């Protein structure tokens, strides 16, 4: 029987989103395969995490494309981005905690591409007078990541309704990012 790698990765992502300390045995069980089969595809947890990273980057880039970041006011594009990235937010929350992915010079360049695209959206909003200029695009990008991860955790723990995810994230970020008129 052929193993569907995408199914295994998505099963692992769903489990690790809920339980980041899950063992490879638990991942195999969640995917409906044996530990030996899982090990044939992923030599260990590090290999699985790297494969999940690739999936997370692909999901983020697809969400960025669907969000059409260059269209409409930047505020609307931020809201679209949060809505489009929501299905992958749990996976991103898990990856956000995996320090091995962000340490040293071996960092996946996919994250830099994503950072650049999101920062460009915030720069566009600043240039149009929509966003505060005292907050750097890099900081706004990091704040968005933090809110996405926090929102995903809150939803997965049942502290927040999933239907409120996009509104909570976008409005909190935009409420702090909107340029206020000087008095």
Number of strands: 0
User: How would you characterize the largest beta sheet?
Assistant: none
- Uncertain stretches: none
Which range best describes the helical content: under 10%, 10-25%, 25-40%, 40-55%, 55-70% or over 70%?
Answer: 55-70%
Question: What's the overall geometry?
Answer: elongated
**H/E element sequence:** HHHHHHHHH
- The proportion of strand residues reads under 5%
Q: Count of helical segments?
A: 9
How large, in whole angstroms, is the Cα Rg?
A: 18 Å
Average pLDDT confidence is: 89
**Class based on secondary structure composition and strand pairing:** mainly alpha
Distance between the termini: 69 Å
Structural summary, described in words:
The protein has helices spanning 5-18, 24-31, 35-41, 45-67, 74-85, 89-96, 109-127, 137-156, 165-177. It has 183 residues and is mostly helical. Helix 1 (5-18) packs across helix 2 (24-31), helix 2 packs across helix 3 and helix 5 (74-85) runs antiparallel to helix 9. The model has no long low-confidence stretch (mean pLDDT 89). It is elongated. It is 68% helix and 0% strand. The longest helix has 23 residues, at 45-67.
């Amino acid at each position: 029987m052929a193993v569907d790698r995408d199914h295994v990765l998505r099963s692992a992502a769903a489990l690790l989103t809920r339980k980041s300390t899950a063992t490879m045995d638990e991942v195999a069980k969640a995917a409906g395969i044996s530990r030996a089969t899982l090990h044939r595809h992923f030599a260990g947890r590090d290999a699985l995490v790297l494969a999940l990273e690739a999936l997370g980057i692909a999901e983020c880039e697809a969400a960025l494309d669907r969000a059409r970041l260059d269209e409409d006011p930047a505020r609307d594009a931020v809201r679209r981005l949060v809505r489009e990235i929501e299905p992958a937010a749990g996976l991103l929350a898990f990856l956000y905690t995996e320090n091995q992915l962000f340490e040293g010079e071996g960092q996946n360049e996919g994250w830099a591409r994503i950072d650049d695209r999101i920062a460009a959206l915030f720069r566009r909003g600043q240039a149009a007078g929509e966003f505060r200029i005292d907050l750097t695009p890099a900081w706004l990008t990091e704040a968005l990541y933090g809110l996405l991860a926090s929102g995903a955790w809150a939803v997965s723990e049942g502290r927040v309704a999933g239907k409120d995810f996009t509104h909570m994230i976008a409005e909190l970020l935009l409420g702090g990012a909107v340029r206020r008129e000087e008095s």
